[in-house]
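BUG: 3D viewer hangs when loading the predicted structure for this chain

Environment: internal workstation, default settings.
Expected: structure renders.
Actual: progress bar stalls at 90%.

Input used:
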Amino acid sequence: MHDISTEAILSQPPEIPQEGHGQSTRAPKNVASALIFLSACISIIMTGFGIIIPVFPQRLESLGLGAETLALMEGGFGLGMFLFSTPMGTLAGRFGRKPIILLALGGFILTNVILALVNIPFMFIVVRFVEGALAAGLMPASMAIVGDSLPIERQGRWIGIMTTAQAAGIALGPGIGGFIYQSWGFQSPFLLSAGLAFIAALLALLLLPETLSEEARKRARLGKKERKEGATRGNTTNALQLALLFAPLILMDLGSTFIYPFTLPQYPFFFEKVLHYSAAQYGLIVSVYGLSLAVCPLILGRLSDLLPKRVLIVVGSLLLPLLNVAMLFINQYPLLIAAAFVTGAGSALMLPALGALYLRETTEDNRSQVMGVRGSAISLAILTAPLAQAAASLVITPQITFAIGSILGFGMALFAALALRSNKHSANPNAQ
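Structure tokens produced before the viewer hung:
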């Protein structure tokens, strides 16, 4: 086998682009309005995810079920996201971005209505798996629309806005869901979520433009036909090839996403038994972290359009493990609050820059497929991190858990500094 360096991998994106296969110039007439609406759709569907979080434990308990069923439900959702993010991204490159977004919204409507009506534990798990599978296409298609519609120098700020919309929806949902559940019963949060998604789907059907050109769709269908016939051409690239070509970026997503789902299960116990803080104080730490995740991308996302992306990713990776470092060495509550906020700010620096780097190295033909591969990697980290903690907690202390999280974060910063060298060639002719 040839020895291919990380720099060579990043500097030679998929062999799809030919003349005229670069970034789409068919941007909607009013790009800002379309992207604001798309961000609103993301916020609505993420609020819908959050709304039902407080309902599941009480509902399962009323049926005589416990935490194991809830874990299987959430595992089913994560498994669906992992298995179908890449296929959904591929479909968004074959049939268009808009149909996949409508499919995600429609699937969310259907599954929430079913969850409001069924009382069979096995069906809970199956429906959550289907929900994860159908929702898996939302972010790959949305990110592809950003890449299709905007020049490279304007993509970072919109990735930041979408990240804020996603985090804000997740943060607001549980509070809204708990209030609605207490006021109108267990079915109401599911039906409200379905109603919000229905409004978003209707507006998307009427207002959201299709940004994938008909030429790109024809090329995708032709490539599928060639693969079925056993033809081999340079302009067909499968998901495995894309994963290898984008391996450095995917590894950064895996590592950075893995850290907090792995360490967070230890936090409440460590807070109570070692630091002797109350549950309310711990809740404030989590809230500050969530607030930072929601607000900072909106403020800092534009930096990825102004500063070198490598610098932002490295700095963000250095800030990302600070809450774990603080748990090891700092007992003062105000400093823990500050560390939680700075940790969220690290994600706000890193994620828009990393997303813009993905988009810069893709073309209209492979953009959504690459973002689907990225979604699978992120889902894999979210799925495996709690399982790894469940297994490791039997033999390691909370302090070792936080140390692992800290080392992993700093290791990602070192990896980013070494891997993200300036690219001399790009699949996208507009790349910086």
